[in-house]
Design a protein that fits this description.
The protein is of the alpha+beta class. The protein has six helices and twelve strands. Strands 1, 2, 3, 4, 5, 6, 7, 8, 9, 10, 11 and 12 form a twelve-stranded antiparallel sheet that branches. A hairpin with a 6-residue loop joins strand 3 and strand 4. The longest helix is centred in the N-terminal third of the chain and has 14 residues. Pfam families: MipA (PF06629). It comes from Microvirga aerilata.
Length: 278
């Protein structure tokens, strides 16, 4: 049920005329990074992608859920595709011809439902959330990227969150490798939504105690990806990510009783690019 809800919501996000044109959920490229070009006299290169993801059912969970969804991006013909890490948010840059980029970004955060884990009985349901915000990205050298995102949640939570990452990106012919550390922060509104327990919830559940966390660093970890260009049109990307919950998030009775501090995600994307002239 949860995966189906997420599929519909993500599908609508990536299919929208504004955001679908603006960015890519997975792989878009670095300054000075050579990419194979689709041989065409068309004005635009359109890339259609099929994405499969597996990760924790909800923040702090110890079991997995799966989701599949399409995504779409486009760029001017002759323009190299910009690199983006698998865990980047959906973004639109206001500055492209530079080692420095900034713009708007958005993410989707799945909810927490009783069907995810029956042990959650008595805990309040958390709906899915969207997180619009801004990002800044900088390439100090051709193979190193630093990126920061600051976002605000709506619907499921109304807190502020931030993600910081550093990626080493290396291309060997048709093969592209990337890896780097991650740091995530959330304010008290965010941590209390996903990791807090009210006295009423504690009494109804009977397995956890009341808990009121504060904001701060919520996780540290890393993401690694491997991409391969099979032809000028076809490519695949696989990735693995790891988050270790820390601070008040790790001390949550929900995590200690029902979940895990170790949050692992994996994914695969298949892409097809073609030329288009309006």
């Amino acid at each position: 049920m949860r995966a189906a809800r997420s599929f519909v919501l993500l599908g609508s996000l990536v299919a929208g005329p504004t955001m679908a044109q603006a960015a890519d959920l997975l792989f878009s490229p670095a300054p000075l990074q050579a990419q194979p070009q689709v041989q065409t006299s068309s004005d635009w290169i359109i890339t259609v992608k099929g994405n499969l993801r597996a990760g924790p059912s909800y923040p702090g969970a110890d079991d997995f859920s799966f989701i599949g969804y399409p995504s779409l991006s486009f760029r001017r013909a002759g323009t190299p595709e910009r690199f983006s890490a698998p865990d980047d948010g959906l973004s639109f840059s206001f500055l492209e011809e530079s080692a420095f980029r900034f713009g708007i970004v958005g993410r989707f955060q799945g909810g927490r439902y009783l069907e995810d884990d029956r042990r959650l009985a008595g805990l309040e349901k958390i709906d899915w959330a969207v997180e619009p915000g801004v990002f800044v990205e900088y390439w100090p050298v051709e193979f190193l990227r630093a990126r920061a995102e600051i976002r605000r949640g709506f619907n499921g939570h109304e807190g502020f969150v931030a993600d910081f990452g550093l990626d080493i990106v290396q291309k060997f012919g048709a093969l592209t490798l990337s890896a780097g550390p991650r740091l995530a922060l959330g304010d008290s509104e965010f941590t209390r939504t996903y990791f807090g327990v009210t006295p009423v919830e504690a009494a109804l559940n009977g397995e956890v105690t009341a808990y009121r966390p504060s904001g701060g660093i919520t996780s540290v970890g890393a993401t690694a990806a491997v991409g391969y260009d099979w032809t000028d049109q076809w490519s695949t990307i696989a990735f693995v990510s790891y988050k270790h919950l820390v601070g008040d998030a790790a001390d949550s009775p929900i995590v200690e009783r029902f979940g895990s501090e170790h949050q692992v995600g994996v994914g695969l994307t298949v892409s097809y690019s073609f030329g288009y002239t309006p």
